[in-house]
Write a structure and sequence with these properties.
Largest sheet: none
Number of domains: 1
Shape: elongated
Order of helices and strands: HHHHHHHHH
Oligomer: single chain
Strand content: under 5%
């Protein structure tokens, strides 16, 4: 990448491998896609009532299970993020280069589950579907317009020479 892409970033914006730190919006998008897993972890760690949190956030348990299924792509992205380092396996580099497409798939699949939950199984309200669509559209817009994320995708950590 040319130096003009990095002109607006400070040294604190780079990691130990001279790669630009990940765009913060990506973490928010992953939190949104993985919300069922986050709720599940919160409920498992609640010692008094293991299913109370799930029932409070997901009154219909079938929607919870569908959101767990839709979050699988997000889990794979988190796996790729955690394996993204120098000397990583070739498949990690290939998957990292496809991370934008994977995020689009995760968001589209999540929205599809939500829309199907509303129209076929009547599991959600109209207001939630509208909010869900707005959140997915915002996330897609962020992925498409974020220069920082585009730089992140173009970079892959390389081992730096010893000083």
């Amino acid at each position: 990448m040319s130096a003009k892409y990095y002109a607006n970033f400070l040294p604190k914006d780079f990691d130990n491998f001279d790669c630009l730190k990940l765009a913060p919006g990506i973490y928010l998008i992953l939190l949104f896609v993985l919300r069922a897993y986050i709720v599940w972890i919160m409920s498992v760690t609640n010692m008094r009532d293991h299913v109370g949190i799930i029932q409070w956030i997901y009154p219909q348990t079938s929607l919870f299970y569908l959101n767990l299924v839709s979050g699988v792509v997000g889990l794979f992205i988190v796996l790729v993020l955690s394996l993204r380092r120098p000397n990583a396996e070739p498949w990690v580099r290939i998957c990292w280069e496809k991370c934008k497409v994977l995020l689009f798939l995760a968001l589209a699949f999540d929205l599809l589950i939500g829309v199907l939950g509303y129209f076929i199984w009547h599991l959600q309200s109209v207001s939630w579907i509208i909010v869900h669509c707005a959140l997915v559209m915002s996330a897609v817009g962020y992925i498409l317009k974020s220069k920082r994320f585009s730089i992140n995708i173009a970079e892959f950590p390389e081992a730096l020479p010893e000083k």
